[in-house]
């Protein structure tokens, strides 16, 4: 995947475990950058929208959730940026799913968020409904790496949509995941991401 300075629209539509989780909401995303800021934009249409989490660090993967897992270097460390429809983030780093560290409150506060459904938790809404969320993430938020600019960076990552406590659970990805059951914390299945 080539990341240019103008947004490229992609889909999150890979059903990795169709026998158990066959529901696939409509999800498009764009990723772009302005040297030292990463821009993510998601457009979602799904049958039910859940936004129970009201604070950063809450279990947003239980809500309607879009995610970007990002490994900017070959040191084994990756970031998971998980966001619900009202912009609440679960943003951590580490080498696997265990012992992950949350980024600092200062870094969380530096991320600009724009959400079509507002920024207050609302519970559950029946649909189908459309929602969008945009995140502008300064490179300084990737605290374990000294990234000065995204220009020319070769990285790896994947994009996901899930909802662990929705009436119909789903686990959808951009790049395929070759595991027997849902597991997004598998960097061996991340795809190549090249920032121009």
The gist of it:
With 196 residues, the protein is an all-beta fold. The chain has one helix at residues 105-109; strands at 2-3, 8-11, 14-15, 26-33, 37-51, 65-71, 78-83, 89-94, 101-102, 112-115, 123-138, 154-162, 171-173, 191-195. It has one domain (9-188): Sandwich (Immunoglobulin-like).
Tell me the layout of helices and strands.
Blueprint: E1 2-3, E2 8-11, E3 14-15, E4 26-33, E5 37-51, E6 65-71, E7 78-83, E8 89-94, E9 101-102, H1 105-109, E10 112-115, E11 123-138, E12 154-162, E13 171-173, E14 191-195
What does this structure look like?
There is one protein chain. The protein is mostly beta strands. It has one domain: Immunoglobulin-like. The protein is 3% helix and 45% strand. The chain is globular and about 45 Å long.
